[in-house]
Amino acid sequence: MSKEQHLLKSYNLNGLELPNRVVMAPMTRSRANNPENKPTEGLHDIYYTQRASAGLIITEGSQVSKEAVGYVNTPGIYSKEQVEGWKMVNNKVHEANGRIFIQLWHVGRMSHPDFHNGELPMSASAINPEAQSFTPEGFKDTVTPKEMTGEDIKRTIQDFKNAAKNAMEAGFDGIEIHSSNGYLFHQFFNGTSNKRKDEYGGSIENRAKILFETIDAIKEVMPEQKIGLRLNPSLNGIFGMTMDEETIPTFDYIIKKLNDYDLAYLHLSEPFNDVSDVPHAVTEIAKRYRPMYNGTLMINAGFDQESGNIVIEEGNADLVAFGKPYISNPDLVERFAENIPLSGWDTDTFYTPGEKGYIDYEAKARKQEA
Ligand SMILES: Cc1cc2nc3c(=O)[nH]c(=O)nc-3n(C[C@H](O)[C@H](O)[C@H](O)COP(=O)(O)O)c2cc1C
C-alpha cells in the first residue's frame, strides 16, 4: 500500500485539527470498579494515553446519571469525583497530543432492577427487550421497564445537559450522544419499542423528538460544533431491536434534520450482522446516508486498513472509527503507516477488571521506531 493513505490525511473537525482520520470507537471496558464509578489513575489514563495518536478518541459509553446505567463498572459523568477522574485522563491525553470526546449514555430498558434499588428501569414504553443485562452478579434477563412520564423525559434531557456541562469542565474536546445500539434514544425511534400516545410517540417526527430536544438542551452549555452523535439504522435482532417499515424512513428523517445543525459529526454504523434477508433493512449505510448528510460523516463497524482507506477514497465517509482493532493495537495509526500486521484481541478480557487485556497490549510499531 502506498504511503498516500486516506486514513492518514489530516482533517479539520469543525475547528479541531485531527492529524489523521483514524478514530477510536467508543468501547465499554468496565474498569471503573470503584464505589464512585470514576476513571482512575494508573488505569484509564494509561489506556487512553496509549491510544493518543488516534485522530480522535471517543471514550466508552459513560452514564449521564445513576438512572442511566445498565452495565457493571462503567464510568459516569454526573458526579464531582467522576469529573475529577476524567479531568485527570484528559490532561494526560492532551499532554500526549491526543484529542478526546466522551460518549454520553443512557441505556433505558437495557438495564435491570439490581442497578436501581429494585425499581424498574425506564424506556419509551413498557416493553421488555428480551435481552440480558450485565449486572454485578453476572448476566440477568431484562424485565418489562416502566414507561417514562413527561417528567422522566424532561429530567433525562436535563441529565444529558448536565453531563455535557460536566464534560466541558472535565476538559473533553467534545461529546458524542449515544443514540444508537438499542439504548434509550433508539428505543424512542423504533416503532416496536415505542407505542406512546403522547408527543413522543406515534409519528416519525414525534419518535425523534427526544433526540432533538436533547441536542437543543446541550447546545445551551457547549458549542454545537463539539457535539457528535451516533446512529445504527440497520440494527436488527440485537439489543432488543426489530426493524419495521418505518425504521429507515425514521433515520432518513433524523439525518436530514441534522443538516439544520452544525454538529461535529454524524457517526454511523454499518449493520452489525447480516441483514441482507431482513425486510426493510439497508445493507450499505454509508452509501445511503452520505448524499443525505452535509456535515462530517464517520463510519464504523468491520473496517480494516484497506476498506477504511477505500471508504474515504470513494467519498462515502470522512472518518473511520475502529473498535476491536483499537483494543489490541494501541498504536493502530503507526501500524497503518508502517503496514505492520495487527495483533488480535482477547474477548475474555473485554469487560474484566484490571490491567490485563486493557493496558498490556504492545505498541509494536512504536518499539521498532525506538
Ligand atoms: C468491548 C466492546 C465494547 C463496546 N462498547 C460500546 C459503547 O460503549 N458504545 C458504543 O457506542 N459502542 C460500543 N461498542 C461497539 C463499537 O463501538 C463498534 O461499533 C463495534 O466494535 C464494531 O466496530 P469494529 O468492527 O471496528 O470492532 C463496543 C464494542 C466492543 C467490542
From TrEMBL:
It holds the Pfam family Oxidored_FMN. Residues 16-342 form the NADH:flavin oxidoreductase/NADH oxidase N-terminal domain. The keyword Transmembrane helix does not apply. One of its GO terms (cellular component) is cytosol. It comes from the Bacteria. Keywords: Oxidoreductase. Its cofactor is FMN. SUPFAM superfamilies: FMN-linked oxidoreductases (SSF51395). InterPro entries: Aldolase_TIM, OxRdtase_FMN_N, Oye-like. One of its GO terms (molecular function) is oxidoreductase activity, acting on the CH-CH group of donors, NAD or NADP as acceptor. Belongs to the NADH:flavin oxidoreductase/NADH oxidase family. This is NADH:flavin oxidoreductase. It comes from Salegentibacter salinarum.
